[in-house]
Specification:
Length: about 375
């Protein structure tokens, strides 16, 4: 393809309820969308960076600047661009995987729409529906937590994930385990909130029959995750630590993780996400699809990714109404605890450009050759 232009859209979208983790409390999403205009058609991508650099070193304004100053000029130097070539084109830029993923996804959307191929078909999906879990933020009280979880159970979500941090872990986990009963699928996510000194404390979680504990220590601290995996019965899952296929293989082989959360935005795009899936499948390590409060644009690609054979655990591919009163695409609706994999060309969804305009928090930027 020849890329003629990129559009950068900055949106402010309120959440239906606040979402609190160990590092931040969100009441809305500062969304960066990328639209590519090519000689074969158009495509959309969504950047999963947050407004501030608390989850990762990337943040929305920084991602926009990287796309504006480095990634788009690199695309404009070639008359023969493809999604498969994007990683190589962007390789002179160190890091900034979330920015790269947004552009790569837009390229892939345009490319596959032109070819009449869906994301799911291109990735290697083996099912047309995926099991869905839901991520539950830190609540003001246990009673409010239980009310929220009860609502998700009633809607049919197949797995509950609780955000935890020091001071908000054993009591909420115990309460939700009692609510779900012994058979309910329950896991916890620490978002790097603990240290190796907390291993004995985290061992107490073994009594609650959790699917996994996700990323208790900082990204670079593989050694402490190895120590934790040896000390507890609950499987250790890595999220923020996993940024490439090579890192995933290294963490598995060193015993730091026995489950991996794959987030395409965190690893630089869906092509790298598929590569990590393939490496884990080869090593019989289960994976699941993480979420970053995506709109329907990012959710469509996530659902297609989660339809691959190695995704044996319910992911954070929740329905649109988990986060938004209205979505940027046709809504993703939970049916029997599952979401349908879009079957149309590209992402398979239609972007509601009138909402993109209505929710704009800054003027659209047009980047041209």
């Amino acid at each position: 393809m020849r890329v003629e232009a990129l559009e950068l859209h900055r949106l402010a979208i309120p959440l239906v309820r606040p979402f609190e983790t160990s590092f931040a409390r969100q009441t809305g999403r500062d969304v960066l969308l990328v639209k590519v205009r090519t000689d074969v058609g158009e495509g959309w991508g969504e950047c999963v960076a947050m407004a501030d650099p608390y989850y990762s070193s990337e943040y929305v304004s920084g991602a926009a600047d990287v796309i504006r100053s480095y990634l788009s000029p690199a695309l404009f130097t070639s008359d023969d661009v493809s999604a498969e070539a994007a990683a190589g084109i962007f390789s002179p830029v160190v890091g900034h995987r979330m920015a790269k993923a947004a552009v790569e996804t837009a390229l892939l959307d345009a490319q596959l729409r032109a070819a009449g191929t869906s994301f799911g078909e291109y990735f290697g999906a083996v099912t047309d529906r995926v099991d869905c879990g839901v991520s539950v933020g830190i609540s003001p009280t246990i009673d409010e937590l239980l009310a929220e979880v009860s609502g998700y159970v009633a809607q049919g979500y197949k797995r509950i994930k609780l955000k935890i941090k020091p001071g908000w872990d054993l009591e909420p986990v115990a309460a939700v385990r009692e609510l779900l009963g012994p058979e309910g699928l329950l896991q916890v996510d620490a978002n790097t909130a603990y240290t190796i000194a907390d291993i004995d404390h985290l061992r107490v979680l073994d009594q609650y029959g959790l699917l996994l504990i996700e990323q208790p220590f900082v990204e670079e601290d593989i050694r402490s995750h190895i120590a934790l995996a040896r000390a507890i019965e609950t499987p250790v899952c890595l999220d923020e630590s996993i940024v490439t296929t090579e890192v995933a293989i290294d963490a598995i082989e060193r015993g730091a993780t026995s489950v991996i959360n794959i987030k395409a935005g965190r690893v630089g795009g869906y092509l790298e996400a598929v590569s990590i899936h393939d490496a884990c499948l080869e090593r019989t390590v289960p994976v699941w699809c993480g979420g970053m409060l995506e709109t329907g644009i990012g959710r469509a690609a996530n659902v297609a990714l989660a339809a691959l054979p190695g995704f044996t655990l319910p992911g954070d591919t929740s329905a649109s109404d988990r986060y938004f009163a209205e979505d940027l695409t046709e809504p993703f609706v939970l049916e029997g605890g599952q979401l349908a994999v879009p079957a149309g060309p590209g992402s398979g969804v239609t972007v509601r450009e009138e909402l993109v305009a209505d929710w704009a928090s800054a003027p659209m930027e047009m980047l041209r050759r």
